[in-house]
């Protein structure tokens, strides 16, 4: 009983502190007119949200929020304000009246709706009592992965995840259409260096590049067992390419990770994901029903007990299906983020302090 | 055997958190970017080392301790490098320190008085 | 005991937020964001132990890596106004790369 009390106290203190930080950060982001400060504070906000999700026992969501909100999103927004202004103008009070009223109205409606929600973690609420309980009860039998979140994301709601991967691909295509595909000639125009020579940074970046790639692969393949999966691993791979481009120059990075390869990778990811679904249809199943991924004659040749329970041979199809679609998501997310970065960085104006920009 | 290790680990974790807190107070109170970089990076790295050591003692010899060691290695590599790069960038862009010959020379050439003494 | 460490870290993070908002120059803000990120990694580790779920450490490892990259990006943006030119001079090129210019 004392343990339960300690848990409640710990949660309450941490929850209130995090909420207070979120409130202060939100006010500061809204009030500042220096966009660099706003982007930085938005990164910090995403980080506090990630800790918040951790405290609510959602490590997968926290993982994605931390790497995307505080990592890639910050860098890409920096690229965006390189192409536009670094300051926001001061708006008069009259122009702010309508947005303020809209914000108050929507916020009020949200607060009113939240007051009606069941208590957090209440086991008898409709969300927890029916669908979630069914997933928790049958997922280990039907899917066989220890991480229920991956089972729901990749198998039960696999079509939704296909939609997410396609949306990311569409975002990359949209940015590429506006900013260019980041061809090699964009990297050729840039001057050779900044003039300063950051030795420490170069060595540290050189050490970090293989380590981050290895860790991204770990996250990818560990997604069945713990928090992780295709999205987080894809963002980590994109971050490593961005680190290389920041430290060693866009030209070097484009020689190593060619823009055509990146474009092809994004399309290949979505193709792989949808292809898995089509293979299931060809084998007499429904779209993305991994039980039908392998035809019965191949399934019969798999030695029983090689993977999991010999009484449930359809685990084999589930495992391979989830493996392939996570691979597809990895390709799409990594390639989409890299091509968006290439688009922004390749278009940036040459800085005034360097030799080519005098 | 486990109980004293837990206490020592908890104590080390609290010491690490205290060091981080002192560093944060320093960042608020110090007058200048360079002194703040000192406060932040030294106490961050030291506090992280103490805290991760304490958590490692609590978790014993297991996979979790390996992951804590990996976090420690990354923080030890990246935090001083980031601090160095930031200080380098600040200095080469002309950001003058609070006191010292750089500021005196720059202010003298601009015709201003010396820095305000606390 | 670990809860006390977590509260200490949260206080340090709150003070860093104040510096990030207040900092007169942008270097102060970048420093505050970097330090906040490191403290968040520690907080994630401690919360993982407080709630008994060591699987949270993967998130900590990945954010320790990403924090470094985001700090480099912010510094490079503010100091150099460019994301594409290199920060270090690349080494002499071998014979195979000369033709790709």
Using brief descriptors, characterize the structure shown.
heterotrimer, A: 358 residues, mainly alpha, Four Helix Bundle (Hemerythrin (Met), subunit A), 2 domains, 73% helix, disordered C terminus, C: 101 residues, 69% helix
Outline the structure in words:
- The complex is a heterotrimer of chains A (358), B (118) and C (101).
- Chain A is mostly helical and 358 residues long.
- Chain A is 73% helix and 0% strand.
- Chain A has helices at residues 2-31, 35-55, 59-83, 97-115, 126-142, 148-156, 158-179, 184-188, 199-221, 230-248, 250-256, 259-282, 296-301, 315-347.
- Mean pLDDT of chain A is 84; it is low at 1-5 and 353-358.
- In chain B, 81% of the residues lie in helices and 0% in strands.
- Chain B has helices at residues 2-29, 33-59, 63-92, 101-110.
- Chain B has a domain at 2-78.
- By secondary structure, chain C is an all-alpha fold.
- Chain C has one domain.
- Chain C has three helices and no strands.
- Classes of the chains: A mainly alpha (358), B mainly alpha (118), C mainly alpha (101).
- Chains A and C meet through helix 1, helix 2, helix 3, helix 8 and helix 9 of A and helix 1, helix 2 and helix 3 of C.
